[in-house]
Amino acid sequence: MERGCKTAKRLGKKTDLYMLVALHMEKSPMCVSPSDKFNKSGIVVCESDKIHKVVAVGCSRENLHAVQHIILSVPRSLRNCTVYLSRKPCATCATFLIQDSVSSVYYWPMAPELKGEDSAVEEELKQVDQMFVRSQISISIFLPSTDFDVSKISERIRRHKCRNCHSHNAEAVPKDMEKIMSLLNMQDRKMMCVSQMKKALHCLNYLLHCTHGEFEKKEEDDVEKMHVHALQLCYLLAARSDDPDRGVGCILYNQNGYFFGAGYNGYPIGAIYANLPCGGRHNKKKPGTAKGPVLIHAEANALLFRFSKKIEENDVLYCSKPPCSECQNYIQYVGIKKIISVQESSQSSSDQQVS
């Protein structure tokens, strides 16, 4: 079929997306260091099949590491799953991951979870590597591939940044990379890691939505900060959408403090983009070219692929745009009562609306 439609610019792989999400989970207002001996951390768990369905997204809490928090929340649910961490795990977290039979672990190359003397940290990291090897579970550094024009993606997902956000510099590569690379036994790859980290951090910062919107219903500062962070995650998810016109992201939050479902709008699983209509929703010039009938909305995908089938009283759905009437029916049917989305407005697209 001759359609003359261009391919959507998006994040290349889900693996890239999940590592960026794990990294950004450290910015959550819920994320704190478990104790003085450990750094805070973020985690994304997904199934290892073709779909890579999200099982859980979370972060460390007081007295609980990110790995511990997720596994204790959804015990015996990580079998054969892939885990993305913002830092290399400590020995205790390694035992949790091994006991839950994960298939592989990827982490961002910055200071590991464990703090302390270099010699003690280095010794524990060696033990961690040995534990995974003996358990036949792979563990390695992962850096997203970001060799593309990220501005093209930000335009399509309607990412907005005010002047304050535009003037904010992306998080810098750690100054002690020499020490970190030594601890991670990656001295010979320092330059490559630094180069890729800079690109990935620039991409992450560029895709994050403005944090200076105003909520229609005023809540406590900590709650509003949590809402803003969750909406930023929606924009990261939207960056994977293959809708040529508008990328939308959606994420589901559980009352126990972790995200249990995520989705973005796009074409059906396994569909070859070039063989499906991609014309605008109201395209009437050529019958059969409108994308509407074949496109699946972000909210529907998040609900269809949510890990927890049971919806609790205080669960929340976050979305980078207000749900359409059809998706609102789905949301109401499954029992979610609270929706938080970014208000569609020609005057200020950064306003957040709570409903």
From TrEMBL:
InterPro entries: APOBEC/CMP_deaminase_Zn-bd, CMP_dCMP_dom, Cytidine_deaminase-like, dCMP_deaminase-rel
Record-level Gene Ontology MF annotations: dCMP deaminase activity; zinc ion binding
Reaction(s) the record says it catalyses: 2'-deoxycytidine + H2O + H(+) = 2'-deoxyuridine + NH4(+); cytidine + H2O + H(+) = uridine + NH4(+)
Gene Ontology CC: cytoplasm
Domain CMP/dCMP-type deaminase: 13-122, 225-355
Keywords from the named record: Hydrolase, Metal-binding, Repeat, Zinc
Cofactor: Zn(2+)
EC assignment: 3.5.4.5
Keyword Zinc: yes
Enzyme's top EC category: hydrolase
PROSITE patterns: CYT_DCMP_DEAMINASES_1 (PS00903), CYT_DCMP_DEAMINASES_2 (PS51747)
One Pfam family linked to the record: dCMP_cyt_deam_1
Family the entry assigns: Belongs to the cytidine and deoxycytidylate deaminase family.
PANTHER family in the cross-refs: CYTIDINE AND DCMP DEAMINASE DOMAIN-CONTAINING PROTEIN 1, DEOXYCYTIDYLATE DEAMINASE-RELATED
Protein name: Cytidine and dCMP deaminase domain-containing protein 1
